[in-house]
Amino acid sequence: MEIIGATTLLLIVCIVFIVLSITQARKGKSKGKLPPGPTPLPILGNLFQFTGKDVFKSLYKLGEKYGPVYLLHMGMDPVVVLCSCDAVKEALISNAEDFGARGHMPLLNRITCGGQGVVGSNGERWKQLRRFSLMTLRNFGMGKKSIAQRIQEEAQFLMNELRKSKGQPLDPTFYFSKAVSNVICSVVLGDRFEYEDKDFLTILGFMNEIFKGFSSIWGQVYNLYPNVMDRIPGPHHKMFKAIDGIHEIIKKHVKRHKETLDPNDPRDFIDCFLIKTEQEKDVPASEFNTEAIVNTTFDLFGAGTETVSTTLRYGFMILLKYPDVEERLHQEIDNVIGRDRTPCIEDRPQMPYMDAVIHEIQRFIDLLPLGVPRKATQDLKFRDYFIPEGTTIYPMLGSVLRDPKQFKSPNRFNPEHFLDDKGKFIRNEGFMPFSSGKRVCVGEGLARMELFLFFTTILQNFSLWSPVDIEDIDLTPLLSGFGNFPRYYQLAFTPR
């Protein structure tokens, strides 16, 4: 009887799926032609066509078959994929309002507690929290000299740690995470951590676990069937514990800030948020509350730690693979800065090769190949196709960063992509690692300063050495899902 019951239930679900699919297709045809795409299976959708170790490659191949705008089903949810530089730019820039909302992504929804904070929210909540975050970060020096000084100081703490290694090989993962995270900690929490602080190491371990989980197969399956995955055991629950763990740590810091708050002298981002919350305590629809402060602070930690530190880790692996690039960087640093003066952000215009190498590292590693999903804010016509309101959109940043129309050797690391024939730095429309349009990364300016100052300071002080042969350095990602997660490796920093 149980077998019959299960079979009947499965049959009913399949019928419902087919009916819904037919209804949706008819609705689309009545208003216009839906984008082309592979035929989905009941319940499973196009599961077998895009899950696995290299999701981006699977989606890219579908783009080659169906064109730069196509439709597929992630589970039972229809998703429109944009798979070329022109298509992504047209959507995010030329039609910014139509594609300006955050799309459906169960893992992101889980992290943001149902759309709290900046990254996962929409509508008035997103507008208010984003505006406040940008204004507050700027007031604390984002894009100004004061934040650059914080990065310079943290870079020197990192140099001291690396010197302790005495030129012996080490895994650079947490060295970079500590330094980068301390920059955002100084802005958000008002102070930096000692590198061996237990709470600090716990936060960094949690962050690393979350980024890995997002890119794992378990994370991909969760995005397809969240209700099922919530109820079965698996490694994804370790990621959820990490998310909850960071939330609890942030709540403790918020509590301490409340106890010592001086409204006339805000120390950091949390203080500013608490002051804003108090100012709007009598506003019924205010978006400034305890839940919002925890999730917005989490967003800043995530964006300000794992993305930049992973770029550094991936970048130095690339420099090990290409020692000629490292040597040319040493020469530029010696010519422009020398070995005695601390690098500063004002050096960047005089260092076109360093600028080009950093841009090429970001392009080549393609950190978030799928981009963070958007959503159609209304029924719209895009490139002769009808896209229903509420449809999730995946603007594939990887297809922009590796568009052969923009880059002459898209699958090869080549800093010349950002240099003219006279060696001067040139911009490229295909450079879009921070996304674009209304949802461009809030911390882009901060990240660009960090990458320049950390790369330059490290290479001013150290030469790089790998304990394995260059031929054995594998630049392909260890995990490739929502993000590209680099392989672990050993690196020795030899004083120059």
TrEMBL record:
Its main location: endoplasmic reticulum. SUPFAM superfamilies: Cytochrome P450. Residues 1-25 form the signal peptide. CDD domains: CYP2 (cd11026). GO terms for biological process: epoxygenase P450 pathway; xenobiotic metabolic process. InterPro entries: Cyt_P450, Cyt_P450_CS, Cyt_P450_E_grp-I, Cyt_P450_E_grp-I_CYP2A-like, Cyt_P450_sf, Cytochrome_P450_fam2. Its cofactor is heme. Gene3D superfamilies: Cytochrome P450. It comes from the Eukaryota. Keywords: Endoplasmic reticulum, Heme, Iron, Membrane, Metal-binding, Microsome, Monooxygenase, Oxidoreductase, Signal. Pfam families: p450. It is found in: Endoplasmic reticulum membrane; Microsome membrane. GO terms for cellular component: endoplasmic reticulum membrane. Heme binds at residue 441. The keyword Endoplasmic reticulum applies. It is a peripheral membrane protein. Its EC number is 1.14.14.1. This is unspecific monooxygenase. It comes from Engystomops pustulosus.
